[in-house]
Amino acid sequence: MARIAFIGLGNMGLPMARNLLKAGYTVSGFDLVQAVVTQLASEGARAATSARDAAQDADAVISMLPAGRQVEDLYLGEDGLLAALPAGRLVLDCSTIAPATARRVHRAAAAHGVAMLDAPVSGGTAGAASGSLTFMVGGATVTLEKARPILAAMGRNIFHAGFESAGQLAKLCNNLLLAVQMIGTAEAMALGTRCGLDADVLAEIMRQSSGGNWVLERYNPWPGVQANSPASHGYQPGFMAGLMAKDLGLVQETALQAGAATPMGSLALNLYRLLLQQGLGGQDFSAVQKLFIDQQ
Amino acid sequence: MARIAFIGLGNMGLPMARNLLKAGYTVSGFDLVQAVVTQLASEGARAATSARDAAQDADAVISMLPAGRQVEDLYLGEDGLLAALPAGRLVLDCSTIAPATARRVHRAAAAHGVAMLDAPVSGGTAGAASGSLTFMVGGATVTLEKARPILAAMGRNIFHAGFESAGQLAKLCNNLLLAVQMIGTAEAMALGTRCGLDADVLAEIMRQSSGGNWVLERYNPWPGVQANSPASHGYQPGFMAGLMAKDLGLVQETALQAGAATPMGSLALNLYRLLLQQGLGGQDFSAVQKLFIDQQ
Amino acid sequence: MARIAFIGLGNMGLPMARNLLKAGYTVSGFDLVQAVVTQLASEGARAATSARDAAQDADAVISMLPAGRQVEDLYLGEDGLLAALPAGRLVLDCSTIAPATARRVHRAAAAHGVAMLDAPVSGGTAGAASGSLTFMVGGATVTLEKARPILAAMGRNIFHAGFESAGQLAKLCNNLLLAVQMIGTAEAMALGTRCGLDADVLAEIMRQSSGGNWVLERYNPWPGVQANSPASHGYQPGFMAGLMAKDLGLVQETALQAGAATPMGSLALNLYRLLLQQGLGGQDFSAVQKLFIDQQ
Amino acid sequence: MARIAFIGLGNMGLPMARNLLKAGYTVSGFDLVQAVVTQLASEGARAATSARDAAQDADAVISMLPAGRQVEDLYLGEDGLLAALPAGRLVLDCSTIAPATARRVHRAAAAHGVAMLDAPVSGGTAGAASGSLTFMVGGATVTLEKARPILAAMGRNIFHAGFESAGQLAKLCNNLLLAVQMIGTAEAMALGTRCGLDADVLAEIMRQSSGGNWVLERYNPWPGVQANSPASHGYQPGFMAGLMAKDLGLVQETALQAGAATPMGSLALNLYRLLLQQGLGGQDFSAVQKLFIDQQ
């Protein structure tokens, strides 16, 4: 069974690393926050003192970091991990970052003879804990097949999106659409209830009709419609509005470079920015519903 | 078995009336276009010479008309049908019209002792032909129970949205959301493919992820992704862009009266208007995809 | 000198009526609020007990009312003023209402042989007080020439926009553009200052460059840039955000009927609605700046 | 009189360099297109064979290049111009580029002891030809005072926007606002004329009212309203739609980095992208009017 270095043990990384331990992998973990390293060590991992320390002797490196800057810091440059890894090792970056950044890391990995995948996830902290994440993977098919058992220990669906950075692209397209239908759902719920419709009835009609979407199935933004939704628990995340704004920013970066028009996606980003400017970036991304409810 | 007057035998009304005939109802049909009246008569209906002629002796009147103006002309005023109907008759208006207009007709029906439902449909011409429409119904429960067998002959799902005009409200909320996620899907497909993703792969990833929606399930706007979609057949409708623009206009009318913010819905209407101004209002509403594809 | 009935003595109507008194006109005033009638009477007007009472013996009727509903109530119907006015009298409606409503009143006036103008104003309460309003006038040239001395007693610029209701149309087009450039200015000010530019310097550069507009000349939404702006006085109106939202709603009603695309105007309305839903509808319309400033 | 190296002799740079010659400066010019170098040489400049050749012995270097990439190529890196310039020389970059890029060049210039200004312009090719450009300048006051005579030979207004890159920021804020009010004006013109207003009358009313702006003063997008506007000459640029889209992209890059909400600016970019996707990027930016006119 392979030895895995896991870099980045935050809200997502820690439960993902746990699932690797449960599956029998040997894990050495590192994070800038000592407490989570200690925590993972108490569950059977080796506590590494640096990313390089974690990676020595590892067959595979997995990173789960907040943004592209941290990913570049980790892998590139003179002190970067890629320069230290023996050729043939496997690198899986599960962070959500700009496709252009992912391509830079891929190119450097190739130059060092390291097999790399970009493998961002969806499914949130709940999916990370239950091992039911979705992976959207960019990179060579042969590399994916090598990595598949490791990914399968952490997730349920593994999609091969295509070429290097294609995982990031697919993730961004998905989250663009997710944000648009979250806000569209919030508008429809607010309009209907403001006109007197019962929220439960409206939600159910749309769910079963041509307005049906994942938000209506799992994540209705109107408080009380679904017992388990963040909306029914004070919009505790779940997936933070601030992170959705970050992803929508990456969508816009990508659209700018591609010369693509995304009027709905741009509006979604701006509505999330208005939400953040009200100080609600730490709430669940379904809290965008609040923009459409009278606040008096 | 009840006798039914069917007013409005267009692309939707004609197949709906046929399904009533198949279910054994006695139908008298009327339309301003003589040819469709003759057609329905050749299939077993009585050809009426006017709406009043169709309605005499009918237990129930069903109307399926293009817009609120025609519905008001049919039912209200001195020559209107409501004045001519004996108390206790059933009126089902299946047209998609402004909730405010529906309320006016409901009030007049109540004043004449006529039991009325607003019962707009979704499912398009295909659903009308196959008898699998969805009805969103506003009005009294007791009236709905009386009407249920008739509706069941034409559709599969029958939702009781609530009070008088609630069917129209639910329909508009649904179509607001449908338009938003159609355009959101079109943006995501265009962005991803412009960046090199395979359209089929991207569509499948989003369909199974948090971006999943009815459009991705049944009605992908990218040509070739789904063999049966309008996009794969030159954007032949289906549900015309011009009709979606009409419904989104009703959404805005309703939002204006309610003081509701619908930034996504407003943008959707405006994007459909830009499409119409390119002369594409007669194509399927998924042709909004064309806005996001280089036209050179 | 003509005798004038003035109906509607609110924040705009009262100072307008005062300017007629100052110009030597005989004025009889009416409002549902008795206090303002008494106030105007104390300044030399006759206190009328009803609109009909005010209008009897008047050569001209001026109305300045909150919305189309009140204008229709005043003029149309069996008890309406038009039925009571002798042919040949002059009616000037200075309210801002939907062009479609204005056309209904014009038609009724013509049927009664009454000469009518729609003559909405811009310039706000300050312009009303100082007699420097701008009138945008719809109706016959000959009627405008008859009314010109009266309008000149209340305003400085008198534009003949064209046919019946053209004054309302021009007013709505102007306010659409005003709202768009108010928000555009607010975005530019927020973006520049957030990046470190000095607000005064940025405002001055744009004012003298191709970004120049009336908002930058007179009404900068950034606090402190202009000593006399509402922004520098806690966003006290001025022109209330709620009234701008009302006008933008009329723009959308008009655009819906005309099949016109107004993506910027629609977005402006929705941003004002978000502002209203934060309880800020009573502040000046430049308070839309607050949407773009961190609220923590 | 100072010797000036002018790098980038395109539609803007060539007439700017001419004005320096007219003012008595010694100019050596370089461009990748040989023809324009030859042209300028025939008017009295020295034809340089490279940027380095142009810059040798020059007291000041002026660059007017299409985008940040070319500016970085020119100044930075091992072969870059900054490494070749003696300390104390003056560099004026008049290109419109991202503020972040401008800051990188400023930092490198400072490291080499070169005095630099970012000095993007507005006024278009007409302003460049007539020497009436507006310069928005970022950098030290003492540097600006050294550069002022040179700038004054090419432009009329010289604004000191502030710190290094502040010129770019001010330019972007201005163009954000310009684009928003161009589209707002186009919407208002289309709505009013569609409802029957005379285009000239409407344009004049708004110009003199609170909707007044630079577009209405100088650059009305409706064909025929102003004899000299691009709209009245088949939308020949002027300022190309493709360049406005580029600037709006820089606005979005800047807003993304600053975490600023710019809903109007984002919508403007997307509407320009839709225009470009119709193949109209080479027309004047006022051709956005076409989006709002029926194309049948």
Descriptive overview:
4 copies of one chain form a homotetramer. Chain A is globular. Chain A contains 13 helices and 9 strands. The first copy, chain A, is 49% helix and 14% strand. By secondary structure, chain A is of the alpha/beta class. The model of chain A has no long low-confidence stretch (mean pLDDT 96). Chain A has a 6-stranded parallel beta sheet with strand order 3-2-1-4-5-6, sandwiched between helices. Chain A has a 3-stranded mixed beta sheet with strand order 7-8-9. In chain A, α8 (141-152) links the parallel β8 (133-138) and β9. In chain A, α1 (13-22) packs parallel to α7, α4 packs parallel to α6 (99-111) and α12 runs antiparallel to α13. Chain A has 2 domains: 3-164, 3-Layer(aba) Sandwich (Rossmann fold), CATH 3.40.50; 169-292, N-(1-d-carboxylethyl)-l-norvaline Dehydrogenase, domain 2. The interface between A and B is large, with 68 and 67 residues.
Question: Can you summarize this structure?
Answer:
Four copies of one chain form a homotetramer. Chain A is α/β, with parallel strands linked by helices. Chain A contains 13 helices and nine strands.
Please give a handful of descriptors for the protein shown:
homotetramer, 296 residues, alpha/beta, Rossmann fold, N-(1-d-carboxylethyl)-l-norvaline Dehydrogenase, domain 2, six-stranded parallel β-sheet, 49% helix
Q: Any idea what the radius of gyration of chain A is?
A: 20 Å
The residue-averaged pLDDT of chain A reads 96
SS-based structural class of chain A? alpha/beta
Widest beta sheet: strand line-up of chain A? 3-2-1-4-5-6
- Biggest interface found: A-B, 68 and 67 residues
User: Total number of helical segments of chain A?
Assistant: 13
CATH level-1 class of the largest domain in chain A: Alpha Beta
Flag low-confidence runs of chain A: none
